[in-house]
């Protein structure tokens, strides 16, 4: 069966006004398709633009340019009641379970809000959905009468997930949803998300800096560097051997829990360049160990190098055969 | 490796007065740090790992803190030492590097001057000489253009650079012990790997003993020689890196290790998570603190706190569990 695109981004751009008139292009003309039912893992280091891209995809942050299509319809500038009902299909789970819940409201009201506002549910009908959801995320419906401060970080993240799922969205952007949690709690929330994705047939953009977490939950991986997507691959292809030198360095930097002597680490020299003033040519050439003359002057485009595999590099690393 | 004990912790307790009563952050810890080793202190939030490390140099003293037990360093008990005595030890013999370098650095002072100041606090050297040494130190911690970086203010540097500056300040007086509290948690992995390499180099070149406080088991595997796992204020397992990480005996250590989503090895369908959440309140169960979450607990686990003892592994591989089963038996059960 051919996968159906759910979200299509075309030349999506987000710019922020920097100091002294310097405009920071946080997201630089991103083309990306997210297919129905898949979980796409978006990875990269701080400042690469992955959160901004996630927020712009559901217009929590308004894009400066480009197009967002949801089920084929252009929603980039959609307004009014039409957008309100569309927006209910597109939800977000945030990283900070402490900052994203109104401390004065009861959990049941927090979770019911998108149902009442965007889906036009009656209070009684919403109540029923909320009870079911609180059970489903493992808090129990009794939690509805309590307030955010009575819950631990992991529990608050479950509340955030329940709120995002209340209007039965088709697409969820989860921005570092488990990064603030302890390891043992993190595993619980990852399992919960995996169950919900399966049971509800959710399509998800899962943003994380943690490659272990992403490997666990994503079907495909997209890697960002300085506002651009530099590699897209299936989960197994990426972890068997990234095709972009940056992906390779990123993966080799992750400390592994292995008794074997440390693997070869590819140490990236230097710092992330200023996003307001990215290098000419390939934006990664300043830290790339394979860079040649051409990389300094000519910007590579994101091109297909194998089935389902795209890379923005003049000299892509030949993917190894089979699992590593 | 030398096995001379540098720092000896005996029966350390740290309690804080909180609205709900008295919080037992550290509930009796015995631990020794040997010269030249990297000892990782592992645990989740509220396990007491930071409270333990801060109390080594008296950084969490205050009207609401009650610290008991002994921390013996160079023949002195640092728990009993007065603030003057502690000041002469802190930054000179024992240095601390915090997670949040931006908060720990003075925003209004150039970073080179902050390194130089730490040198001059403990040694009578001319300003000029301290400043030159500061630039040298910034170079040693891997800052590319140390003379230029020395003139920068903290906000002008990246997170990785600031963490290096913190380490440079820590090293200013060539301390015997460096306490690094989550030194790479705020950093990206590519920068983290640079900082971890730096810690290993310090250990090799200067013979610095390092107490590394972290929640990241991958980081532990990467750099630690010995590991102590904390849960609810107590050490529940300790031993060499290989013993604790690759032949764990305590159900908590096992659970923690299997909860980590890994980038290597075969992908697993479902993470074997530990049920429930860590103890954070003032109330503690009478027996094993992990029993309420333990997949292997039986009724007697709630009777008394198990002692930290050698059971199946090497002579220094200790854990705090009474389950009379081999590790293999524990692994197949749930």
From TrEMBL, chain A:
Domain ABC transporter: 7-251
Keyword annotations from UniProtKB, A to Z: ATP-binding, Nucleotide-binding, Transport
Segments forming a coiled coil: none
InterPro entries named in the record: AAA+_ATPase, ABC_transp_ATP-bind, ABC_transporter-like_ATP-bd, ABC_transporter-like_CS, Oligopep_ABC_C, P-loop_NTPase
Molecular function in Gene Ontology: ATP binding
Nucleotide-binding is among the record's keywords: yes
Family: Belongs to the ABC transporter superfamily.
Name of the protein: Peptide ABC transporter ATP-binding protein
Organism field: Paractinoplanes durhamensis
Phylogenetic placement of the source organism: Bacteria, Bacillati, Actinomycetota, Actinomycetes, Micromonosporales
From TrEMBL, chain B:
PROSITE patterns, per the entry: ABC_TRANSPORTER_1 (PS00211), ABC_TRANSPORTER_2 (PS50893)
Keyword Chaperone tagged: no
Keywords for the protein's UniProt record, in alphabetical order: ATP-binding, Cell membrane, Membrane, Nucleotide-binding, Transport
Record localization: Cell membrane
UniProt-recorded Gene Ontology molecular function terms: ATP binding
Keyword rRNA-binding attached: no
Name of the molecule in the record: ABC transporter ATP-binding protein
Principal localisation: membrane
